[in-house]
Amino acid sequence: MLQKWPVFSKKEIRALQGLSYQEIAFFVLEAFIDGEITSEKLQMIIQESYRNFRHKTITPLLQIDANSFVLELFHGPTLAFKDIAIQLLSRIMNYILQDVNQYCI
Q1: pTM of the model
Q2: For the purposes of burial, counting CB atoms within 10 Å of the CB of 59, is it exposed (0-12), middle (13-18) or buried (19 or more)?
Q3: Per annotation, catalytic residue among 4, 10, 56, 82
Q4: Going along 1-105, which residue ranges are E strands?
Q5: In what residue span(s) does the Threonine synthase N-terminal domain sit (predicted)?
């Protein structure tokens, strides 16, 4: 169980530049999961969660002029922004519930 709220240094945040959505998700989630899920299993869950997205970057950032950008959140299986979180959260919940012989519908 998480005992302390994770804090990321500026150096750690800068190091995320250029990484894939899945790699960034792993870095952030691993700090919050605090060993409840193995690193290998967490990586697998993240990969499964985003494999059906229609864009390789998951949430492409488009520049529309010099200082304006649009983050596209509609490339998931249902074409809705909720896919970004729900695809991952549902798999994490199922994994944790299976560990205690429970399930959710």
Answers
A1: 0.86
A2: middle
A3: 82
A4: 61-65, 68-71
A5: 3-50
